[in-house]
Design brief:
This protein is about 25% helix and about 40% strand. The protein is α+β, with helices and mostly antiparallel strands. It has one domain: Nuclear Transport Factor 2, Chain: A. The protein has a 6-stranded mixed β-sheet with strand order 2-1-6-5-4-3, with helices on one face. A hairpin with a 2-residue loop joins β3 and β4.
Length: about 140
């Protein structure tokens, strides 16, 4: 695929696609089980997150603490299903993942007319492992 600036995008390798999708699945499971460590285990030490409220958090420890507080607080009764909608490999070691999140019940049933979100993950590969360098969440229009 060619980008607007004329450069070619990197060819996605099946194992890289699977690895990134597994990371998102781990985050979904962590969110639904209120396990902050699972939610952040794939972030780089210097990662940055911007949540749906526009609050920026940088650094693994601060991101972890924000997850601990959120999952025990205002997100304690929230559950979600994540769908990797698109993956764009800018280079073999850099990818952007677009992920949709949809509210579900604790039993896993979709919530009709619930508030969804879209997230953009900037993924980097180091030492044969994919990591999240940045994430931006945005609420979808209701």
């Amino acid at each position: 695929m060619q980008r607007p600036n004329g450069q070619q995008t990197a060819t996605a390798q099946p194992q890289d696609i699977a690895a990134i999708k597994q990371i998102i699945a781990t985050i979904e499971t962590g969110f639904n089980q209120k396990d902050a460590a699972a939610c952040v285990k794939h972030f780089t030490q210097d990662a940055t997150v911007v949540n749906v409220l526009g609050i920026r958090v940088s650094g693994w420890s601060a991101i972890h603490e924000a997850h601990v507080q959120g999952l025990a607080g205002h997100l304690r009764d929230e559950y979600a299903r994540y769908d990797v909608h698109d993956l764009l490999f800018l280079r073999p070691d850099v990818a952007i993942a677009q992920v949709y999140g949809w509210p579900i019940t604790q039993a896993g049933q979709p919530i009709e007319d619930g508030q969804g979100m879209i997230a953009m993950y900037v993924m980097v590969k180091a030492h044969e492992q994919w990591w999240i360098a940045a994430r931006q969440n945005t609420l979808l229009p209701v």
